[in-house]
Amino acid sequence: MTKVETSGRSRRFQRLRARRENLAGSPVESPYVQLENPYPPLEILSADEVSFIDASAKKLLQEVGIKVLSAEARAHYRQGGAEVDKESEQVRFPSEMIETLMKPVPSKFSMYGRNPVRNVTMGGGVGGETSRVAFGTVSGTPFLSDLDRGRRDGDKAGLIELAKLAQYYDVIHILGTLIEPLDIPVKMRHVETVRCYMTHSDKVPFVRSQRRQEIEEAVTLVRLIRGIDEDRLYKEPSCYTVVNMNSPLQLDELMAQGIMVMAELGQVVIVTPFTLAGAMAPVTLAGALTQQHAEALAGMVLAQIVKPGTCVVYGGFTSNVDMRSGSPAFGTPEYTQAAIATGQLCRMYNVPFRSSNVNASNAPDAQSAYESQMSLWGAVLGGCHFLLHGAGWLEGGLVASYEKFIIDVEMLQMMARFFGNLVVDEDSVAMGAMRDVGAGGHYFGTKHTLERYDKAFYEPILSDWRNFENWSEAGGETADVRANKIWKEVVAKSPDTMLEAGLEEEVAGYVAKVEERVKRDTKKSR
Amino acid sequence: MTKVETSGRSRRFQRLRARRENLAGSPVESPYVQLENPYPPLEILSADEVSFIDASAKKLLQEVGIKVLSAEARAHYRQGGAEVDKESEQVRFPSEMIETLMKPVPSKFSMYGRNPVRNVTMGGGVGGETSRVAFGTVSGTPFLSDLDRGRRDGDKAGLIELAKLAQYYDVIHILGTLIEPLDIPVKMRHVETVRCYMTHSDKVPFVRSQRRQEIEEAVTLVRLIRGIDEDRLYKEPSCYTVVNMNSPLQLDELMAQGIMVMAELGQVVIVTPFTLAGAMAPVTLAGALTQQHAEALAGMVLAQIVKPGTCVVYGGFTSNVDMRSGSPAFGTPEYTQAAIATGQLCRMYNVPFRSSNVNASNAPDAQSAYESQMSLWGAVLGGCHFLLHGAGWLEGGLVASYEKFIIDVEMLQMMARFFGNLVVDEDSVAMGAMRDVGAGGHYFGTKHTLERYDKAFYEPILSDWRNFENWSEAGGETADVRANKIWKEVVAKSPDTMLEAGLEEEVAGYVAKVEERVKRDTKKSR
Q: In whole numbers, what is the pLDDT of chain B averaged over residues?
């Protein structure tokens, strides 16, 4: 697996890890640290159909365009060659502008974790090279839920617990925002959340799209904790943001800031239109995909105008609503098809593809699992490079569920194992063993089995394979109840901090400075 | 969809269906009656690896062979060119024998339901033609389980309830045995089960591999109920059996009878080795697949010796055990890989591929759903033509669960929808609608939406997409609890019989005759 550099910082992390007694999943040994999807992507659209959607999206951008609520962004678009209508704030794109601006987009790039073993390669799969896959946690949920404490507002304590879970499992490569901690003052949330993420995890964190100053402060804190200077940060993307286009065909001020400021700082921008077919997008999947494509291109192009070559990712989120109630649905067959089609649209531009592990269930039950699997397979078969909401998403994204987090980790680890090699050679075909055992025997105690059994198969963390009698006697716990026990164990044995004492003070000092700045601003605005 | 012939029998069925008021899913309108998988199969093995496994399996059959416990089968094998060792009962296959005998195997054939709309095409996918997919119910479980009555021995009442569920949902094409009805005397079970299946369903039934006379009587009953003569039955396979090789490398008397008698009668033989890696097969997946391949070929070849061109299906069931406890596991990543690899081995011989929807959970919970999905996707991506255990399987096949049945129907219907076409054309790309709605609007009330909303998306039978508040107020039921209500509704509104009065008497008469024969035999053997 990935070799660990023995720099000073890295050695500190090795000591930290050594301290975490009984904490399994050390990244040095784990098969989950870097994943490759060896399967060629599935194609649901013909080449002509992909071209038709692309051409239609560009026609839409040319004839209708998008409404951009940020004056700064409109100025950038104008400078990049777009026509801007001052009154309507509508931005229209000449036909060749998109293609020209999308050319320098990297098809593969690295994101840098605080711990070098957490560096993530994003993209690949072009021209026969392997396609990398990274899994991220749930992101952006206002509510929290677990079987003991029920459903409640997101808070800092919950954010810390989820960050510990995210850190513990190596199959989680990247942090989402996890939840919205409502007990942290709004004006301090941008730095306090980053402090939480990075105190409890050494994986690449999320920075929200917000006002310029807030983004800059959050990214500065990421840089301080990584212990690097601005030049290096600019060359080593160390955090990312997700920009949700305000579908249909609109980009608001904060989302525009997210694109522009993160691009300026050399960080990663994921553009994800929220195209729910039947609500914010046409009821036809082809229509919703066309709109998604137009919006994604418009967003990624802004990043390229600000800084050509900005590392951007195309986020596919097209799903459908329940036409009887208007409720959003996720992990539907239409969602799966849209994910696969989106992969094809991404490959047209050689841009990395982000998808999600989503469902619309209200409980960590069978529905949550089968809808998640439908979205997971859509992502994997679509050749997705980054799966956000990989663990913990419930209720269509309103809730981060602790139990679903564990269920999802199990599903992600199973998928990671599915990416593994099925070895076919003289040794694995085991002709000798079959000859020895012959007819009617068994392989339990054979030499061939004993030499291989401990690494032969995926070992689950959650699935219970005992027979009914043993399972019943032990309490007859369903998967959600078992998941409840697991997350509590992990949280309990996770370290209180992953920051060294000196660094913790440095972080506190920076956060205090931001607090002073916020106080000054509040006074001014009174 | 499929047109309904208006023969006398068919008209009777139309009347029957018309009687079933409020019973949705009429096959005439249902999109689930005949399914095609439009996606090309995934390949996990290189062509060389497939050839190596095939060559190794044939080498195993040549050098080690299989132990055949039936003298009649050994005689057939000898006549077909195999070397038979009288003392060890070992049958060895000269290298070219397998390939020669497998040549007349049909790559695609029809199975005939009592109702012509229930006819099923099995196979396809060779040379650019579409690949057909049929889903079958759970099969062979000794126990029954539902949330109200708990876990209990299989009985006739349960068999009838499950047959009603199987009949109700058009996405179920073929019946498995469902359960073992322990309250029906063993010696009458072969005809009583067929009577149950066909009284409550017009879909293709399963006939167990058992003694010659029992198979013949069961098939005769199928023929009587279809109302056809022996010649027509011979040309129109109207039932099937599943032969489990007694892995490793053994074929017992009853299983051999199943192959020989069903082949003689022109019915369908599915040969499924039970190759659990680490227990009855090598711990390496390649080894387990090699053994599976050898056993499947040996079984299918027997059918070809008895009647060249017999409709056979290659059953892939390779999974692994939990190496800590020896418990069988299903829906593991290794299972998924094995299913995909098995599809490649089937295509080498152009023989239809049977797979399964399986899991090892003890409850209809999240584990049951994610393991099922792993096996379902293995089947679909492997190009499977017949999915047995499609609905109702729990506890590694020991239990038929009513709630899991409904959960599975939902998953199968989602998969059926995933097989549907993603239409990309001027109309579906909806440029006009997007122009009309413009930036920041919504599509809820637009003409484009209203004209299409009722058929735009898959409508679930089980998934609950309400928001948390509405869901909680309505009782906060998880998927298993909702499934419990659904199956009870379906059973309650299903007809008491699907046989006309005259036919019911005819069936009763034949069963009485068999009962007399059984009594005579019992007397004789005293």
A: 93
Minimal CA–CA distance to A301: which of A356, A246, A247, A245?
A: A245
Tell me the C-alpha to C-alpha distance, in Å, between residue B455 and each of A278, B233, B459.
12, 39, 9
Tokens read off for B245: 């090789």
* Angstroms from A217 CA to nearest CA on chain B: 31
Nearest-angstrom CA–CA distance, B457 and A278 = 10
Q: Give the separation between CA B242 and CA B192, rounded to whole angstroms.
A: 18
Tell me, yes or no, whether A391 lies in a domain.
Answer: yes
Which residue segment(s) compose the domain that B440 sits in? Answer: 426-456
Q: Which of B44, B283, B461 to mutate to test the interface with A (most CBs of A within 10 A)?
A: B283
Contact A280 B444 (CB under 8 A): no
**How far apart are the C-alpha atoms of B201 and B16, rounded to whole Å?**
12
**CB-CB under 8 Å, A463 with B430:** no
Query: Is the CB of A434 less than 8 angstroms away from the CB of B282?
Result: yes
Amino acid at A8: G
The count of structural domains within chain A is 1
ipTM entry: 0.94
Closest CB to A287 among B250, B415, B433: B433
CA atoms in the 13 A half-sphere facing the CB of A202:
25
pLDDT digits (tens, 9 = 90+) for B92-141: 999 899 999 999 999 999 999 999 999 999 999 977 788 999 999 999 99
DSSP B87-123: TTTEEE--TTHHHHHHTT--SEEEE--SSGGG-EEEE
- The answer as to whether B109 is a domain residue is no
B437, two tokens? 């709605």
**Which CATH number characterizes residue A496's domain?**
3.20.20.480
Q: What is the pLDDT of residues A127-179, one digit of tens each?
A: 778 899 999 999 999 999 999 999 999 999 999 999 999 999 999 999 999 99
Cα pseudo-dihedral B421, B457, B374, B169, rounded to 10: -100
Give the 3-state DSSP-derived string for B296-341, with helices as H, strands as E and coil as C: HHHHHHHHHHHCCCCCEEEECCCEEECCCCCCEECCCHHHHHHHHH
Instruction: In whole angstroms, give the CA distance from residue A30 to residue A203.
Output: 15
Q: Is residue A98 part of a domain?
A: yes
- The tens digit of pLDDT for each residue in B144-188 reads 999 999 999 999 999 999 999 999 999 999 999 999 999 999 999
Mutate: best of B370, B454, B480, partner A, most A CBs <10 A: B370
Residue A429 lies in a domain: no
- CA atoms within 13 A of residue A461's CA, in its CB half-sphere: 24
Burial (CB count <10 Å: 0-12, 13-18, 19+), residue B217: buried
How many angstroms separate the CA atoms of B290 and B296, rounded?
10
Please report, for residues A425, A442, B5, B58, B87, the alpha-carbon distance to residue B248 in angstroms, rounded to integers and kept in the order given: 20, 7, 47, 15, 19
Helices marked H in B103-252 = 156-168, 189-200, 212-226, 230-235
* The two structure tokens encoding residue B84: 């038979």
**Strand boundaries in A124-200, DSSP class E:** 131-135, 143-146, 150-153
Q: Say if residue B420 is exposed, middle or buried (CB neighbours under 10 Å; 0-12, 13-18, 19+).
A: middle
